[in-house]
Automatic annotation (TrEMBL), chain A:
InterPro entries: ISCU, NIF_FeS_clus_asmbl_NifU_N. GO terms for cellular component: cytoplasm; mitochondrial [2Fe-2S] assembly complex; mitochondrial matrix. Keywords: Iron, Metal-binding, Transit peptide. Residues 35-157 form the NIF system FeS cluster assembly NifU N-terminal domain. GO terms for biological process: [4Fe-4S] cluster assembly; intracellular iron ion homeostasis. This is Iron-sulfur cluster assembly enzyme ISCU. Belongs to the NifU family. Signal peptide: none annotated. One of its GO terms (molecular function) is ferrous iron binding. It comes from the Eukaryota. Mitochondrial scaffold protein, of the core iron-sulfur cluster (ISC) assembly complex, that provides the structural architecture on which the [2Fe-2S] clusters are assembled. The core iron-sulfur cluster (ISC) assembly complex is involved in the de novo synthesis of a [2Fe-2S] cluster, the first step of the mitochondrial iron-sulfur protein biogenesis. This process is initiated by the cysteine desulfurase complex (NFS1:LYRM4:NDUFAB1) that produces persulfide which is delivered on the scaffold protein ISCU in a FXN-dependent manner. It comes from Bos taurus.
UniProtKB/TrEMBL annotation, chain B:
The gene is SCLY. Homodimer. This is Selenocysteine lyase. Residues 25-421 form the Aminotransferase class V domain. The lineage of its organism: Eukaryota, Metazoa, Chordata, Craniata, Vertebrata. Catalyzes the decomposition of L-selenocysteine to L-alanine and elemental selenium. GO terms for molecular function: selenocysteine lyase activity; transferase activity. Residues 7-26 have a biased composition (Basic and acidic residues). It comes from the Eukaryota. Pfam families: Aminotran_5. It is found in: Cytoplasm, Cytosol. The keyword Cytoplasm applies. GO terms for cellular component: cytosol. It comes from Bos indicus. Belongs to the class-V pyridoxal-phosphate-dependent aminotransferase family. Keywords: Cytoplasm, Lyase, Pyridoxal phosphate, Transferase.
C-alpha cells in the first residue's frame, strides 16, 4: 500500500510543481495547494500499516468507504481484557490526506480505552494534520473507521455471538 | 507496470493542468437525474430490437409488448401495487392532469345528472365538484386546479401548510371537506424543502370519513399523491399510503422523461376517465402507440430502485447530513437551514438553506459559484427573477431569508469529497459578493 502510494505522491507532487507557474493571479490567494508536511510525514513514514487477525475476539475491524466514492479505509484495533486498545493497524486506498488521517487515527487510538476512542472527532484529526477544506471528508472517513472498528469489537463481546463472521 | 505508470503520469498531469474551475459538481438531483447506465442499456436495446408496434401480433410486436409488460410489473413492484393498476403516461404533468380531469368528469357524470334517484334529494345538486390541496404543490397540480377554478368548473381549497413544520396538517384537510368534495391531492414530498407530507394519515382519515359519506349519498373522497420526488429516495408503498392515485415521474429516479399513474383497482374500484381517445392502448385509459424504449427505461429504473432503494437512501442521507454539518461549521450563525423543520420528516437528499446577508440572494451566490451546479428552488421556476420562492414563504420562512435560499439536492453518486468542494466554492462565492460591496 505504502509502496504504491509513494509513487502516487511523487506524481502528485510533480503535478503540483508543474501546476504552480500556471496559476492565474487570483488563484494565488487559495492557500496550501501543497501537502502539509504532517501529511507528507504520515505518507512517507506511515505508522501501523498492516492487518490484525480479524477472526480474533479481541480484534475489531472497521471497513468504511467505497471505491466508487473514492476512498476505502480499513482500521483494526486490538483490545486487552481491561478494555484498553493495545494495538491498531490500518490499510487505506485513497489520497495522501486519507492515508494520513487513518495513520493518525491508529496512533491516537493506541493506549485509549474503547470509550475514550469513541470521542475522537474528525475535526481533531483535520486540525492536527492541517487538512485543507477540500480534504476534510478524509478525516470524516477516519472517524467513521474508528467507530466502525469499535462497533465491531463491541459486537464480538456480546455473549450470544460466538462466531466472528465479520466482513 | 512502469510503462503504464508513465502513461498514467502523462494523462494525470494533463488532467491536473486543466484549471480547477472546470470541475463541476452537480447537486440539483431534485431538478432531474441522469440516466443510470443500465437504464440507457435497456432503452437502446429496446430501440434496436423491439421497435415493432406492440399491438401487432407478429414476433417483433410481441417482443415490444413483453418489454412493456415487464416494465409495468417492475413499476408495480416498486410501489407495492398491482401491474394492472399502472398506466404509462408522458410524465408527471400528464398524470397529475389526468387525475384532476378524471375526478371532475366523474363527479359530473354521477352527481350532476338530474336523474330521478328514487325520490331521494341529491345532496350535491347544483354544486361544483370540490378539490382540496395544499399551498406548496408543484405547478402541474396547482395550475390545473387554478384553471378549473377560473373556468368555474370546480372549486378548490388550497390548505396552507403549517409554518412550524412545513407540513400540511391532516386536521386542516379534513376540516376543509365539504359535501361536494371529490378529491384530496397532496404531494408526498416537497421538491423545494424536502418535507414529507402525512399522506398515510390523511388517507386513513378520509377513508373513515367516506364510510359515512357514501352511506348518505355523498360522493366518496378520493386521495391522490404526487410521488415525483419521493420515489427512489425513500420507500413508497401504495398499501401503506392508502391512496387511490399515485403519480410516478421517471426523470427523478434516474429514469427517462416519461411517467406513470397508479390507480387503485383501475377500472373496478376507482374510475379513471381518459383525456385522450384513440387506438385502445393502455386499456383505453391512455391510448397512443406505446413509447417502448422509454417504457423499457422506466421499468429498469424502477427495478434498480426496488433492488437498491435502501442503499441509495442511506447514502444520500449520509452525504446530505455531512453537507449540513460542513455548512454549519463553515458559516456558523449566518446559515439558516430552511429544510429543517422540527418534527417533520424530510427527503434524505435535500438541503435548502440561506446564508444571511444583504448581497447574498440565492441566484447571485450561485452565479458566483465556479463548481456548484444547483438551483434556488423548482427548476421550472427559474424565471422568477429575484422574487423569493412562494413555497418557502408558505412555510413561514421570512422574506429576506427566503430570498437567499439555495436548494442543494444530492444524488446516488454524490460524495463527501464533492461536499467539501462545494462548501469551499460557496465560501469563495460569498467572499466575492461581500468583497464587492
Amino acid at each position: 500500500m505504502a509502496a504504491a502510494g509513494a509513487g502516487r505522491l511523487r506524481r502528485a507532487a510533480s503535478a503540483v510543481l508543474l501546476r504552480a507557474p500556471r496559476l492565474p493571479a487570483r488563484e494565488l490567494s487559495a492557500p496550501a495547494r501543497l501537502y502539509h508536511k504532517k501529511v507528507v510525514d504520515h505518507y512517507e513514514n506511515p505508522r501501523n500499516v498492516g492487518s490484525l487477525d480479524k477472526t480474533s475476539k479481541n480484534v475489531g475491524t472497521g471497513l468504511v468507504g467505497a471505491p466508487a466514492c473514492g476512498d476505502v479505509m480499513k482500521l483494526q484495533i486490538q483490545v486487552d481484557e481491561k478494555g484498553k486498545i493495545v494495538d491498531a493497524r490500518f490499510k487505506t486506498f485513497g489520497c495522501g490526506s486519507a492515508i494520513a488521517s487513518s495513520s493518525l487515527a491508529t496512533e491516537w487510538v493506541k493506549g485509549k480505552t474503547v470509550e475514550e476512542a469513541l470521542t475522537i472527532k474528525n475535526t481533531d484529526i483535520a486540525k492536527e494534520l492541517c487538512l485543507p477544506p477540500v480534504k476534510l471528508h478524509c478525516s470524516m472517513l477516519a472517524e467513521d473507521a474508528i467507530k466502525a472498528a469499535l462497533a465491531d469489537y463491541k459486537l464480538k463481546q456480546e455473549p450470544k455471538t460466538g462466531e466472528a463472521e465479520k466482513k | 507496470m512502469e510503462a503504464a505508470g508513465a502513461r498514467n503520469r502523462d494523462a494525470r498531469s494533463r488532467a491536473e493542468k486543466s484549471p480547477p474551475e472546470s470541475r463541476k459538481v452537480y447537486m440539483d438531483y431534485n431538478a432531474t437525474t441522469p440516466l443510470e447506465p443500465e437504464v440507457i442499456e435497456a432503452m437502446t436495446e429496446a430501440m434496436r430490437e423491439a421497435w415493432g408496434n406492440p399491438s401487432s401480433s407478429y414476433p417483433a410486436g410481441r417482443k415490444a409488448k413483453e418489454i412493456i409488460n415487464t416494465a409495468r410489473e417492475n413499476l408495480a413492484k416498486v410501489i407495492g401495487g398491482q401491474p394492472q393498476d399502472v398506466i404509462f403516461t408522458s410524465g408527471g404533468t400528464e398524470s397529475n392532469n389526468l387525475v384532476i380531469q378524471s375526478v371532475v368528469k366523474h363527479f359530473h357524470k354521477v352527481h350532476a345528472a338530474n336523474g330521478d334517484t328514487g325520490g331521494h334529494p341529491n345532496p350535491v345538486d347544483g354544486a361544483l365538484p370540490h378539490i382540496i390541496t395544499c399551498t406548496v404543490e408543484h405547478d402541474s397540480i396547482r395550475l390545473p386546479l387554478e384553471h378549473l377554478r377560473e373556468e368555474r368548473v370546480a372549486e378548490v381549497t388550497f390548505v396552507p401548510v403549517s409554518k412550524v413544520n412545513g407540513q400540511v396538517e391532516a386536521e386542516d384537510i379534513l376540516a376543509a371537506v365539504r359535501p361536494a368534495t371529490c378529491l384530496v391531492t397532496i404531494m408526498l414530498a416537497n421538491n423545494e424543502t424536502g418535507v414529507i407530507m402525512p399522506v398515510p394519515e390523511i388517507s386513513r382519515r378520509v377513508r373513515a370519513l367516506n364510510q359515512q359519506r357514501v352511506a348518505g349519498g355523498l360522493p366518496g373522497v378520493l386521495v391522490h399523491t404526487d410521488a415525483a420526488q419521493a420515489l427512489g429516495k425513500q420507500r413508497v408503498d401504495v398499501r401503506d399510503l392508502g391512496v387511490d392515485f399515485l403519480t410516478i415521474v421517471g426523470h427523478k429516479f434516474y429514469g427517462p422523461r416519461i411517467g406513470a399513474l397508479y390507480v387503485r383497482g383501475l377500472g373496478e374500484h376507482t374510475p379513471l376517465y381518459p383525456m385522450l381517445f384513440g387506438g385502445g392502448q393502455e386499456r383505453n385509459f391512455r391510448p397512443g402507440t406505446e413509447n417502448t424504449p422509454m417504457i423499457a427505461g422506466l421499468g429498469k429504473a424502477a427495478e434498480l430502485v426496488a433492488e437498491n432503494g435502501e442503499a441509495y437512501e442511506a447514502h444520500m442521507r449520509g452525504v446530505r447530513d455531512y453537507l449540513e454539518e460542513r455548512l454549519a461549521a463553515e458559516f456558523g450563525e449566518r446559515i439558516h437551514l430552511n429544510s429543517q423543520f422540527p418534527g417533520a420528516e424530510r427527503l434524505p437528499n435535500t438541503c435548502n438553506f440561506s446564508i444571511r446577508g444583504p448581497q447574498l440572494q440565492g441566484r447571485a451566490v450561485l452565479a458566483q459559484c465556479r463548481t456548484l451546479l444547483a438551483s434556488v428552488g423548482a427548476a421550472c421556476h427559474s424565471d422568477l427573477g429575484d422574487r423569493p420562492s412562494p413555497v418557502l414563504l408558505s412555510c413561514g420562512v421570512p422574506v429576506d431569508v427566503a430570498r437567499n435560499a439555495i436548494r442543494l439536492s444530492v444524488g446516488r453518486s454524490s460524495t463527501r469529497a464533492e461536499v467539501d468542494l462545494v462548501v469551499q466554492d460557496l465560501k469563495q462565492a460569498v467572499a466575492r459578493l461581500e468583497g464587492q460591496a
